[in-house]
Amino acid sequence: MKKIFAIVGLFLIFTACTNKKLDKETALKILQEQEGYPKTIDTEIYIADPADARKLIDAGLEKDGYVKISHTQKLIDVGKPIIAFTDKSKPYLIPQTEEDIKNNVQRVRIVEEVNGKILNVKLSDDGKSALVEFKILFIGQSPFNRISNISTNDSKVGRIKINLE
Questions:
Q1: CA-CA distances (angstroms) from residue 54 to 59, 62, 70?
Q2: CB-based contacts of 99: which residues, under 8 Å, 6+ apart?
Q3: Among 39, 72, 74, 44, residue whose Cα is nearest residue 56
Q4: Are 68 and 62 in contact (CB under 8 A)?
Q5: Would you give per-residue pLDDT tens digits along the chain (165 residues)?
Q6: How large is the C-alpha radius of gyration of the chain?
Q7: Three-class SS state of 20
Q8: What is the pTM of this model?
Q9: Where are the beta strands (DSSP E) in the chain?
Q10: 138: which of 28, 123, 152, 155 fits an S-S bond (Cβ 3.0–4.6 Å)?
Q11: Alpha helix ranges (H) inside 20-159
């Protein structure tokens, strides 16, 4: 009888130690590490492109003082920048890389994407992984959001698979 209790006791200890459980707080920490939240969502503006200049004008960014656009250009100046960013736009500008400078590209911040809260944690049948559902929120919307196709008014639901081994 003692052997049975010892075997059952060892079995319970073994299963308790190997049973992996993922709570919402731990899932949030893992999510932030793996997915790199908060994320900056940006867009590229080609500063020598008349089509991008038109988008900025149509969005009212020139009128609001975020950009200055050269409305006339000589044939010899084709390919040179026609869009200039003002001091008012500096908080939204992302530093240019050498490649950006070479290609006449300026990246601008649209919005910050953050994970709001963990909605659900579902462990797999084998206990080796978990599917985590979380709410994605958009905060700090910039004026340049007007030229993007990103809908930042609604929250979204994200899903990620986390390995527990």
A1: 8, 10, 11
A2: 105
A3: 44
A4: yes
A5: 444 433 434 333 434 334 456 788 888 888 788 888 888 999 999 999 999 999 999 999 999 999 999 987 776 667 788 999 999 999 999 999 999 999 999 999 999 988 888 888 888 888 888 888 989 888 889 999 999 888 777 778 888 888 877
A6: 26
A7: coil
A8: 0.71
A9: 39-46, 67-69, 83-85, 93-94, 105-123, 129-139, 156-163
A10: 152
A11: 24-35, 50-58, 98-102
CA 153 – CA 165 distance, rounded (Å)? 37
The encoded tokens of residue 115 equal 């994970």
Identity of the amino acid at 34? Q
Smallest CA-to-CA distance from 108 within 96, 95, 92 is with 92
CA 134/CA 121 separation, integer angstroms:
9
Cβ contacts of residue 57 below 8 Å, gap of 6+? 63, 69
Task: Tell me which residue of 109, 122, 118 sits closest to 137, measured CA to CA.
Answer: 118
State which amino acid sits at residue 17. Answer: C
Question: What is the SS3 assignment for 126?
Answer: coil
Token pair of 76, please? 């010899």
Angle at 84 between CA 83 and CA 86, to 5 degrees: 140
Residues in the chain: 165
